[in-house]
Specification:
This protein is mainly alpha-helical and 57 residues long. It is elongated, with a radius of gyration of 24 Å.
Amino acid sequence: MEEKTTQKQRTREEILAWLQRARERKQAWEEQTQLELKVMAEEARRARESHYFDFAG
């Protein structure tokens, strides 16, 4: 039995466009992650300064 491949040959431009979109998604994800980490650090700093979690004090 002969195997048939239905994969389409991609042009250089299609591959480069795909890679560029992947880079843009990665950049957006990194920026979002950095923003979330910054917010978490700020919340932790505020909680520390307010002694909210300082049960001994």
